[in-house]
Design a protein that fits this description.
Elements (H helix, E strand, L loop, with lengths): L2 E3 L7 E3 L31 H12 L11 E5 L2 E4 L4 E4 L2 H4 L8 H11 L12 H12 L5 E5 L2 H19 L9 E5 L8 H5 L4 H4 L9 E4 L4 H8 L4 E6 L2 E2 L5 E2 L2 H14 L2 E5 L23 E4 L10 E5 L1 H4 L15 H14 L2 H22 L5 E7 L2 E6 L4 H9 L2 E2 L1 E3 L4 E4 L7 H14 L2 H7 L1
Parallel strand pairs: 5-17, 7-8, 7-9, 9-12, 12-13
Antiparallel strand pairs: 1-2, 3-4, 4-5, 6-14, 10-11, 13-14, 15-16, 16-19, 18-19
Helix pairs in contact: 3-11, 4-11, 8-9, 12-14
Length: about 450
């Protein structure tokens, strides 16, 4: 131990010190009056603090992480490095649809990992073909392209739309190459997908991004139809339910107006179902609730249950524009990922499973309105199935922190004033009750944070 001993009336000598220290007498002739030991070692870090300190040294600072180090999970529960338990209403941002450690998913991953993990797209693999067959059989699509993430799926959709328009207009005149996106949209962080994302603070630091994107008000059918009819639009990108933007749902009339205008002008209609698709709404595909079919649909988040995958589903007329070498990926659609995705897709697409999501979503929305609706800070509870937003009249950050301290993990959306609730689709009604109770108990923190 490195310490300093003080003896009143005696010389001062640093104990066990290796340096040269000058002895000094205090002007006191009595006996020793006191002895103090001061530990000058830095305090020992907890396991979580050590991880956070290491992260600050070695990772690029692109995430303002919550001060929690998660080490394990089971079902809808997560556990941190200190052993604290959390009810997970985030699903890894709408990814872990089957929760944590689903046995069928674990079996699919471990069995495939022991056989074949990666060979690239130079060769055929059975899990990739089988997953594509399932996606085609359960959707409007004729063809599938696999990527590694949602933003890559949207990048591919941009390229497919551009190539389709060039081949559809071979007479030498300029083909339609522009795009429509909407307010509150989020389509990804790579340069093409970023250009389709409405929030300026995402785009501004990296401009110039891809040109030719016009942002229109989400739900404004008239403005969209007028622009589509101009003949300049290659494709319209729209989320049937906006996740990051604040849990805003389209109407059937809006999507039908886009569909009709695209058909008339030769533009493509692209649905981004990266967050709202694959059972999240109680339908396998969010657009099924509206009965309006796209030309292209992008998927990602829950498809492989936590492993990285994206997919573009498209009609034959669009797919036929692509040739060998027009697009590709080294890792996309590997056998390990696709085998995991089949386990997820097979469970989620079961009609009984989807019916349970619808039932639990209605139940959760009702209890949230009952428990939270009377609070003056709560403006609206909205959403479909198990993608629900609670809009506040103040920032939700204080509520997020308070809930985390009480054992509930939630997300924000919109302008930071929307609580986004996207739990695992397997969550029980009892766990939904618990989440609503914690939210109710923590609401008073909004008064405290707003008064500061």
């Amino acid at each position: 131990m490195s310490s300093v001993h003080l003896f009143l009336g005696q010389s001062i000598t640093p104990a066990a010190a290796g340096g040269n220290f000058r002895r000094r007498k205090f002007p006191f002739n009595g006996r020793v009056m006191a002895c103090a030991t001061v530990d000058v070692r830095p305090p020992k870090l907890t396991a979580a603090e050590a991880v956070m300190a290491a992260e600050a040294r070695v990772l690029v600072g692109t995430y303002a992480r919550a001060p929690v180090v998660l080490v394990s999970g089971k079902g809808c529960k997560l556990f941190d490095a200190e052993g604290r338990e959390y009810l997970d209403m985030t699903s890894g941002i709408a990814v872990n649809a089957l929760g944590h450690g689903d046995p069928d998913w674990v079996r699919a991953v471990t069995e495939q990992a022991s056989v074949l993990t990666h060979v690239s797209n130079v060769y055929y693999t059975i899990p990739q073909v089988e997953l594509a067959k399932r996606l085609v059989a359960r959707s409007f699509a004729d063809r599938v392209f696999f990527s590694n993430s949602g933003t890559e799926a949207n990048e591919a959709a941009i390229k497919f739309a551009r190539k389709f328009q060039r081949l559809s207009n071979p007479d030498g005149k300029q083909p339609p190459l522009e795009f429509i996106s909407f307010t509150n949209s989020f389509h990804g962080r790579t340069m093409g997908a970023l250009a389709l994302t409405s929030k300026e603070h995402y785009r501004t630091p990296f401009e110039p991004v891809m040109p030719g994107v016009t942002f229109l008000e989400y739900g404004n059918s008239q403005a969209a139809v007028e622009l589509i009819r101009s003949g300049k639009i290659a494709a319209v990108f729209v989320e049937p339910i906006q996740g990051e933007g604040g849990i805003y749902s389209a109407t059937r009339e809006f999507l039908q107006a886009l569909r009709s205008a695209c058909d008339d002008a030769g533009s493509l209609l692209v649905y981004d179902e990266i967050q709202c698709g694959l059972g999240r709404t109680g339908f396998l595909w969010a657009h099924e609730a509206y009965g309006v079919i796209p030309d292209i649909m992008t998927l990602a988040k829950p498809l492989a249950g936590g492993l990285p995958i994206g997919a573009v589903l498209l009609t034959e007329k669009v797919a036929s524009a692509m040739n060998f070498g027009d697009h590709g990926s080294t890792f996309a659609g590997g056998p390990l990922i696709c085998n995991a995705a089949m386990a997820v897709l097979d469970k989620i697409s079961n009609p009984e499973f989807l019916a349970s999501v619808t039932k639990k979503g209605k139940y959760f929305k009702e209890i949230l309105m009952q428990k939270l609706g009377g609070n003056p800070h709560v403006r609206e509870v909205r959403g479909m199935g198990l993608i629900i937003g609670v809009e506040l009249d103040v920032s939700a950050s204080a509520l997020v922190d308070a809930c985390r301290n009480a054992g509930l993990l939630i997300l924000t959306a919109g302008k930071g004033n929307v609580v986004r609730l996207v739990p695992p689709l397997i969550i029980s009604e009892g766990e939904l009750d618990r989440a609503a109770e914690i939210l109710l108990d923590c609401l008073p923190v909004l008064d405290e944070s707003n008064s500061k």
